[in-house]
């Protein structure tokens, strides 16, 4: 069977204007949260991504009716007919587990395949389950499925052992239709949590404090329809900043909320990039020698783990030694091996990687091991001598909307081909 590859002929300096699409990690829980509504939800600026297709299929399997008008998605969940998300879909995308909270709240019952580990780590869901139990559900795991049931969820005070993004989202959704008030402590503070809370509130939910460590949810009995525009994808935008920097180029990255990129902008400035913030765009100029800087991934507002691989690619071109420490996922350095194949000098020691630069990168056949690792390879390829062929690109299509066209539009020599 033929495989589609992404090929890049390196050495082009990027310049021009490139726009981020709607955020993948915001829209996935938002689509799941539409299950809470008794009306029609109109979601605007939905990116065209394989992961969005999967969550849409999950909803259709539950009996929701979905329709598209370009990038606007309409979801009607009045006639839900199932409370089960099957293994075929959950195994394609862990975020399918986000239907558990809304299903439990709306139907009193949910059966969702237990997501397994993935390329970047074990990624358990124990915090989600503990939270559902605290809200009064009985939860058991049976033949690879998590089954949760309740005669009615009741608000509770829940302390999350760590600020899990998915657990915060799942519990916020479940608590929205619970009786009484819920307080989530040590909640995740990511912008995607705020977007989900805004979406739920625009359906009639009562959530306060999203974006801080303490979120208060007053339960309501029913939610109506709404119209909501998804926030821009901060990781996609950050990846384009790196594309400019690694090619010594100059880009205007449009459709950005600059505040969401503060930790990334700070590190890129430290590395020698000139970045100017406008209201909804970022202008980056990177025509000097890059300097090595250290990064440590942390929950928001720290440096995002979803930008770690791209930053590692950038550091291969910087002068000096950069120490990159990954604290969120235990196995998120798979791109280092592939970057080495292109000429990078990277040593891994436990949860840290030391990148010695600058290396002259050379095109090579490489494999995308996960979404952000794949992007890191494309970025390295843009700065490499000769041609790089990237395989397993389905993982890249999970999270970058129209990537090849967008990068071609600012001068990259990049294309898809069947092998
Ligand atoms: N964790 C637990 N127990 C739990 C839940 C999480 O130990 O019950 C651990 C995880 O194993 C991990 C850490 O907590 O080590 C953080 O996981 P979190 O739950 O916050 O991540 P997630 O919700 O599964 C989302 C994004 C990821 C992003 C992380 C961290 C979505 C759909 N996914 O995952 O995005 O890396 O938050 O910011 O929102 C990506 O887009 O490439 C991506 C992987």
Break the fold down into its secondary structure elements and pairings.
Elements: E1 4-9, E2 15-19, H1 24-33, E3 40-44, H2 50-61, E4 65-69, E5 72-76, E6 84-85, H3 87-92, H4 100-107, E7 109-113, H5 126-134, E8 138-142, E9 145-149, E10 157-159, H6 165-176, E11 181-185, H7 191-202, E12 206-208, E13 214-218, E14 226-229, H8 234-246, E15 250-254, H9 262-270, E16 274-277, E17 281-285, E18 295-296, H10 308-315, E19 320-325, H11 334-341, E20 345-349, E21 352-357, E22 365-367, H12 371-383, E23 387-391, H13 394-397, H14 403-409, E24 413-418
Parallel strand pairs: 2-15, 3-14, 6-7, 10-11, 18-19, 22-23
Antiparallel strand pairs: 1-23, 1-24, 3-5, 4-5, 7-9, 8-9, 11-13, 12-13, 15-17, 16-17, 19-21, 20-21
Residues 25, 28, 95, 121-128, 162, 164-167, 188, 305-306, 328-329, 371-372, 399 line the site of uridine-diphosphate-2(N-acetylglucosaminyl) butyric acid (EPU).
């Amino acid at each position: 069977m033929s495989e589609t590859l992404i090929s890049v002929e390196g050495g082009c300096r990027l310049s021009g204007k490139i726009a981020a699409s709607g955020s993948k990690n915001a829209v996935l829980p938002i689509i799941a949260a539409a299950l809470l509504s008794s009306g029609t939800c109109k979601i605007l600026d939905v990116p065209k991504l394989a992961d969005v297709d999967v969550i849409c299929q999950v909803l259709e399997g539950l009996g929701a009716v979905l329709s598209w008008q370009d990038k606007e998605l309409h979801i009607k969940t009045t006639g839900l007919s199932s409370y089960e998300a099957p293994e075929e879909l959950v195994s394609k995308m862990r975020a399918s587990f986000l239907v558990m909270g809304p299903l439990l709240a709306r139907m009193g019952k949910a059966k969702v395949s237990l997501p397994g580990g993935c390329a970047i780590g074990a990624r358990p869901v124990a915090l989600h389950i503990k939270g559902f139990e605290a809200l009064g559900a009985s939860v058991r795991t049976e033949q690879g499925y998590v089954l949760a049931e309740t005669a009615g969820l009741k608000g509770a005070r829940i302390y999350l052992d760590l600020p899990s993004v998915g657990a915060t989202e799942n519990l916020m959704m479940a608590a929205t239709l619970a009786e009484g008030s819920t307080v989530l402590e040590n909640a995740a503070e990511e912008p995607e949590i705020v977007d989900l809370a805004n979406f739920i509130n625009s359906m009639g939910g009562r959530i306060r404090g999203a974006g801080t460590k303490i979120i208060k949810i007053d339960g309501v009995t029913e939610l109506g329809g709404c119209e909501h525009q998804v926030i821009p994808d901060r990781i996609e935008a950050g990846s384009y900043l790196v594309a400019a920097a690694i090619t010594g180029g100059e880009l205007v990255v449009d459709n950005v909320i600059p505040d969401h990129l503060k930790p990334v902008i700070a590190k890129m400035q430290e590395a020698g990039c000139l970045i100017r913030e406008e209201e909804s765009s970022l202008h980056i100029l990177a025509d000097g020698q890059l300097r090595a800087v250290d990064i440590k991934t942390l929950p928001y507002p720290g440096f995002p783990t979803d930008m770690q691989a791209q930053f590692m690619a950038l550091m291969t071109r910087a002068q000096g030694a950069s120490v990159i420490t990954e604290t969120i996922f235990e196995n998120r350095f798979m791109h280092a091996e592939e970057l080495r194949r292109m000429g990078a000098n990277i040593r891994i020691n436990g949860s840290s990687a030391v990148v010695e630069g600058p290396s002259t990168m050379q095109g090579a056949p490489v494999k995308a091991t996960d979404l952000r690792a794949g992007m890191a390879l494309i970025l390295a390829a843009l700065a490499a001598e000769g041609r790089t062929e990237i395989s397993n690109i389905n993982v890249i299509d999970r999270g970058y909307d129209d990537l090849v066209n967008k990068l071609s539009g600012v001068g990259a020599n990049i294309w898809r081909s069947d092998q």
